[in-house]
## 1
Amino acid sequence: MKNGQETLTELPPIPPLPALPEKSREQGGFLRIFIVTLLTALFVRFYIAQPFIVNGQSMEPTFKNGEYLIIDEITYRFRNPERGEVIVFRYPEDTSTFFIKRVIGLPHETVQVDGNDIYVTSASTTQKIEELYLNGDFWDNITKSLGENEYFVMGDNRLVSSDSRRWGPVTKNLIIGRAFIRFLPIPEMKLFPGDSTR
C-alpha cells in the first residue's frame, strides 16, 4: 500500500498445460458430446415431449392400436385445454395408467349426453357439439356439471370407451399434454392428429 492506495502486482503468466495426446482429445470430445446429447434428450423427454403407444380401440378411428404418438407437454403450462383437443392424462382411479381421450366439457360447464347427442351449457348458453370424428352411433343418458379445473373427456369410439361417463371428470393436474405428432406408422404421420379445433 502506497500513500493509502492499494496497488496490484502483476503475476507472471500461467504456463500452458501440456498438450493431450490426439486420442485423449478425441475421447474427451466424444464424451462431452455424449453427455450434452443425453442431458438434452432427458430434458426433452421429461419436460417437453413424451412418446406413447396407443393401446386399445377407444379412440378409433382417430387413433388405432399400436400407433406411436409424441405428446406435447409444454402448451398446457401456458394455457388450458380446449374443447376438441385430444389429451393424454393419468387415469383418476389409477394414476400409474395413462389414457388418451378427447376434451368435451370445460371447467364450470354442464355436459348433457342425450342419446347420440351432446349438449354443453356454459353460463346461460347451450350448444350442441358437432362430432364428425365419431366411430358409429352410441346411446347414453347422463348430465354432469364440472367444477374448477375439471374436464369431461370421451373416447371417439363411444361404444367401447371407458371415460368421464363412467368415472367422472379429469382434473387439470392429471393432464400430461396433448397429442402433438402421430409418428408411426409413417404413412399416417400427422401434426396435431385428431385435433378438431383446427
## 2
Amino acid sequence: MKDYVTLKIPPPTQNTLSLIRNKHNTSKILEYINVLKTEINPSDNHIQNVIEMLCRFCNFHGDKNFENMKRTDIINFLESFRKSEIKDQQHRWIGTYNLFLQYLLRFFKWLYFPLIEQKKRPRPDVIQNITQIKRKEKSIYKPTDLWNCEDDLLFLKYCPSKRDKCYHMISRDTACRPSELLKLRIKDIVFKSFED
C-alpha cells in the first residue's frame, strides 16, 4: 500500500491495480508511472488512464510478464476493440485503438530502453510495424450536433447565471477551448472600439 500513497493514485485506480494477478507487472506499472511523472509531468487524469489501460492489457493476457509479451499479444489486445460496421457506424473504436497503441508504444519503449532519453528511445521489435488506423470520417460530429443561433438564444433566455451566459458567449465568439478561456486574465482581453 506504501507505493500507492507515494504515487497518490486515486482509489478507483488502486482497486484496478489490485485486480492484476501478476505482481511483477504491477511493480513495473508503478515504476513506469514514477518515471512518467519525471519525463512528461502528466495530469492525474492521464496517469489514471495509463494505469487502467495497462491493467486491462495485463488482465487480457493473464499471468504473462510484460517482458515475455510478443507482437501478436499486442495486436490481439488492440484488435479486441475492433467493432463491426453495424455496432459502430461512426468507427469510434478507432480512437480507442489509436490511443491505446500510443500508450503501449511509450510504455514498451521505456520497458526495453529505460536508460535512454525519452525522446531518443527506439521502437522495440515487439511493437514494430504496428501503426495507427486512419479514421474513415473526417469528423464524427454532424452539423446537427452543433448549436445554431436559436439554440444560443434559448440557452441565454433560460440560463439563470450571468457568469455562465458570459462564458458561453465568449466561447462561441472566440472558438477557444475551455482550458484556453479559463487561463485568460482580465489584462489579456482587449476590447475593440467601433467608431462610426
